[in-house]
């Protein structure tokens, strides 16, 4: 729970977190090393100095540390832990659903575990979706369209194989499709993260919600022009939000565009843990004001009501979280009080 300087309690759902193992022991080849070092470059470039981690800690952290950073020192009430396999780069996968389920079992009522699938697996992808639903009861998946598999360096959401998977997800009630679109990570290809295929899939699967993580950056305009017309397309602020520290004017431009085109009901907070920890992000976001000239030009404002929706209410709606019931379960747990 996050308590504002005025004493208001804000329910926070962190929509994009990871429990990864990118240690040298788990790296399959040079690409595993490149991938985590690229994540680390994002961490160093956009974090406040006092929030920087040493590389060995960043490569692999404990469940206890993650719980502390999110819920004890951090302001999160709940966190959605996303699954990303990258088995071409990591022997045991980067952060698989089995690894994520371990931390969810250890700390009950805190985590929502999302699965993942790769439509290039054909029938095995369909079988795996059934397995994840039956074993973990998933309500969502995280998709990585730039992931390598054999000779393939990516796939698209409107590929025939992907449509078969979406049909099954819709049938099984796996309604929230988080998809990484935008920033690339070496050695993956930037164009394989292009946002345009979201338009096709969102139109054809009205029963699914497509949460576009990173808002398509640097293709923000493309994302906005899609999301404004597709009622089931949402924007996840992971990667966009940390600019609030190092380049606040740029963040003001991004959030203003999102508010203008997409609206405050379709934007979700995500820390992208462990690239960034949520406490400083939430504190800075709650205190943030859009500069007056941008506010006047766009005709938008980041009001306290908009911030409440973005920090937790929108994600709670998508995942069917009963906030009052959840608060009762977590009563007595630590509360992160904003710095004055």
Instruction: Kindly state the number of beta strands.
Output: 11
**Beta fraction:** 5-15%
Q: Into which percent range does the helicity of residues fall?
A: 40-55%
Q: How many helices?
A: 14
- What Rg is obtained from the alpha carbons, in whole angstroms? 19 Å
Distance from N terminus to C terminus (CA atoms, Å) equals 17 Å
Alpha-beta content class = alpha/beta
Shape: globular
Largest sheet: 5 strands, parallel
Organism: Labrys monachus
GO molecular function, one term: hydrolase activity
Keywords: Hydrolase
InterPro entries: Amidohydro-rel, Metal_Hydrolase
What tags apply to this protein structure?
340 residues, alpha/beta, 5-stranded parallel beta sheet, 3-stranded mixed beta sheet, 11 strands, Amidohydro-rel, hydrolase
Structure summary:
The protein has 340 residues and is α/β, with parallel strands linked by helices. Strand 7, helix 7 (196-204) and strand 8 (209-213) form a beta-alpha-beta unit. The chain is 43% helix and 11% strand.
């Amino acid at each position: 729970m996050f308590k504002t300087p005025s004493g208001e309690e804000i329910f926070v759902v962190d929509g994009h977190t990871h429990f990864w193992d990118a240690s040298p022991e788990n790296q399959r080849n040079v690409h595993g090393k490149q991938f985590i070092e690229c994540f680390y470059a994002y961490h160093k470039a956009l974090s406040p100095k006092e929030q920087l981690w040493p590389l060995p800690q960043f490569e692999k952290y404990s469940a206890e540390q993650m719980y502390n950073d999110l819920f004890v020192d951090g302001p999160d009430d709940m966190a959605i832990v996303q699954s990303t396999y990258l088995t071409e780069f990591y022997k045991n996968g980067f952060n698989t659903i089995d690894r994520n389920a371990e931390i969810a079992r250890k700390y009950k009522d805190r985590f929502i575990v999302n699965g993942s699938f790769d439509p290039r697996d054909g029938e095995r992808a369909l079988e795996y979706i059934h397995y994840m639903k039956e074993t973990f009861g998933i309500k969502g998946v995280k998709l990585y369209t730039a992931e390598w598999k054999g000779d393939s360096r990516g796939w698209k959401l409107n590929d025939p194989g992907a449509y078969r998977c979406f049909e099954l997800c819709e049938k099984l009630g796996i309604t929230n499709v988080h998809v990484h679109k935008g920033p690339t990570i070496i050695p993956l290809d930037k164009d394989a993260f292009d946002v345009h295929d979201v338009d096709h899939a969102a139109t054809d699967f009205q029963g699914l919600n497509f949460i576009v993580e990173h808002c398509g950056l640097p293709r923000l305009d493309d994302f906005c022009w899609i999301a404004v017309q597709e009622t089931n397309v949402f924007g996840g602020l992971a990667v966009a939000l940390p600019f609030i520290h190092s380049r606040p004017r740029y963040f003001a431009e991004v959030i203003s565009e999102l508010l203008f085109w997409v609206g405050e009901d379709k934007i979700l907070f995500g820390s992208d843990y462990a690239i960034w920890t949520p406490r400083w992000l939430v504190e800075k976001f709650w205190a943030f004001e859009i500069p007056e000239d941008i506010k006047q030009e766009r005709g938008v404002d980041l009001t306290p009501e908009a911030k409440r929706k973005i920090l937790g209410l929108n994600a709670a709606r998508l995942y069917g979280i009963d906030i009052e019931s959840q608060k009762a379960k977590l009563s007595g747990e630590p509360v992160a009080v904003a710095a004055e």
